[in-house]
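Deliverable D5.2: sample structural annotation.
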Amino acid sequence: MEEKLYDYMDWAEIEAVVYSEENHPRDILGPRVTEDGILIQAFFPGATRAAVHTIRDGKQTEMVCEDEAGFFAVLLPGKKIPSYTLIYWDGDGNQMEHYDPYAYPMQFTEQEQKQFENGICYSIYEKLGAHPVKIDGISGVYFAVWAPNAIRVSVVGNFNNWDGRAYQMNLLESGIYELFIPGVRAGDIYKYEIKAKGGLTYLKSDPYANAAQLRPNNASVVVDLGKYAWQDENWMKKRGVTQGDKAPISVYEVHLGSWKKPDDGREFYNYREIAPMLASYVKELGYTHVELMPVMEHPLDESWGYQVTGYYAPTARYGTPDDFRYFMDTMHQNDIGVILDWVPAHFPRDTFGLSAFDGTCLYEHFDPRQGSHPHWGTLIYNYGRPEVKNFLIANALFWAKEYHADGIRMDAVASMLYLDYGKQDGEWVANIYGGNENLEAIEFLKHLNSIFKKEFPDALLIAEESTAWPKVTGELDDEGLGFDYKWNMGWMNDFTEYMKNDPVYRGAHHDQLTFSMVYAYSEKFMLSLSHDEVVHLKGSMYTKMPGTPEQKMANLRLAYAYQMVHPGKKLLFMGQEFGQEKEWNEKQSLSWELLEDKEHLQLKNYMAALHAFYKANPALYQLDEKPEGFEWINGMEWEKNLLIFLRRTRKKEDTLLVVCNFSNVEYDDFRIGVPYPGKYKEMFNSDAESYGGTGVGNPRVKMSKKTECDERKNSITVKLAPLSVQVFSYTKPETGAASNKSAKAKTAAKAAAEKKTGKKGKPAGKTEEAVKAVKAKKTTKTAQKAEKKVSEKTVKTAEKKQGTTTATEKVEKAVKQAIDSKPVKTVEQTVDKLVKAGKSAAAEAAKAVEKYRAAADPEKKPATKPETKSEAKSEAKPETKTKKSTGMSELGEELQRKFETEER
């Protein structure tokens, strides 16, 4: 029998196995049927003895040592391969027994391999990596890794003494190495030992591993992802509506390792410990989502997770994969969505990771001008390689499927789109057309987004893209990239820079407030005040604000309210909601002790109230992406640091009037044009006393008047609080039966009053001022009637004879009072219109006086120093000039001086 056995020995193949250079070990190792029986060959490095134990009869057959390195073989009688185990004894006499790993067929189908080679096997993570399975009733782990250029790949771990000579893997045509190892269990740690061309042998972590060791260790860990029982069915069914484009979305950005630290000396809380604390806090403040800075495994804490080595593994810092599933489940059960930061743009150079994985530049480009980020020190993916694209696309789908992620926020998209991003001349290679666009990355993003939205249409795709690349959120069939939202980095930079200025100097930077509305509807935006704004010596949001501690808080309330009323979804980094004073540090917990101070606690409570107001008013979110959802009332009050605009829905009654005062000046009786006649009620005031503000506001409903302002026929006068956002709701005036009923009630009340006093001329309870107002109204009506009967010249003559002031002079006087605060051209056009139309009656003059005095009477400006009587007389004293044909001699010259000043 030994002679026959000798004839079956393929010594070249045996040498390849012994020297660990065999990439098709299943061709020689394991069982096979021969003419002389069942040939079984095995390699046990360093073993002195081996045997085959057949399960059915319990018989143990000694194997022949064909090579002293530990290669054994045996011929068993029969024509059918039996179920058996291998037994061997090492040099110390220790006996081991396990099923033969080479007795089981590969688990990849030919179709899966072809799809992978073309970059379209979107469930490849179910095969690549390490997966506990049962094959022919035998439990073990199926290992598979893509390393097409390696000479040999072995699985090593705590189950084989990290010996790369054992468990050499079988190479498939697709470049995938695979092997089923019976007896390996969940919790075992492993790596791949790779022998590259040239003989260099090294260890690599599994790119598709579902878990990894806690740093600084970096071995992969076998886990079973099939045991967790989800309980978030209700959330998953409704999230398409909950986070749709017409829904309110406000995101709380979180770094799990530093949100809170344990008091017992541990470095981190477990996912299961963080979940209820964070869910309760986020729910209390009214956020709709949390966004987690990368939870994928990464070696360096200081990278905050943005240099990933384990794309398919939640970091072990906070627990196991099932612990993270519990976290996600808890958030969903509390109606909180979870967005995951994801980094498809680059990866670190750590030698145990993806870099030079199989001895070649497998995941990255060979040319460093294409494959390296000089500023970050990281490597760039080769998006033109189908298997690399497949790795990334499948990974995004993996988090949505296996961990129920509600959205993916892609980091550093701009660095993917541009070949010269962060590079100098000579450090990059142009595309085939000579441009700097990364055509392969563009195709990858479109491919990814199309497949992701097909599989998970109710999940979000968000891009951190810092340039003006067009159509980032455009439809794929319209040359867009297909994202749902884009971080508005321009708004973030402009707004934070504006808020740093003392209110005295903000007027010169007014464009930083208004510019965002120029491009607001070019993309679907998310307004982000992210971690990037509170690190690297930029200071916290609190320290960015100017002024005293009280003014800093007022500015913060103003800033957060402005973010909430501005079109776009919202995002704020943790700690800023209660006024974290120090810059964020990933090594330290947030400064929760600040909540013991009244001011910081008030700010936190303010954020809860602000979110409640945001979610209760559809005008603030339903038409975020439509121009119809926003309308300027006055965006040009740069001297006063004011912005006034409307937020709308399709329903007129949902309209909100928003007044933002970025100055520290309080304005009394400030006139604002309104879109409709009716009632306007202050619904929200960021400067309310309960939030720590001054309490200046408008407790009473404001009824509009037919007084033109801001190029609108109707207007209201309101008090404007300093450093505030005030929001007014609209109610249409009573009409029809309701107004008739009101009129009848007033008539009945008047009759009752007359009966009580016995007089018809002066109603009971009327004040002297009210009586004067009634008389003035009658006088105005008389004047209006007179105007219809006489010419303008006759009226002027009659008025002069009576010693009264002419209508034109009244208009001039009113305009003089308004010149310093109203656009000159608007004033001139208004006066010209009045004079040329011949409307010089007292009633028209009174209207003009009321209009301009209410809007811009210097005596009513809190910020302007009152004039002395002598100054007023001096300014009002007319100069001797030739009158213009319009009859506006003084006014015309003053306007001319204003125009000349503007032209200069």
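Annotation notes: The two ends are 111 Å apart (CA to CA). The mean pLDDT is 87.
The annotation will be released with the project's public dataset once the embargo ends.
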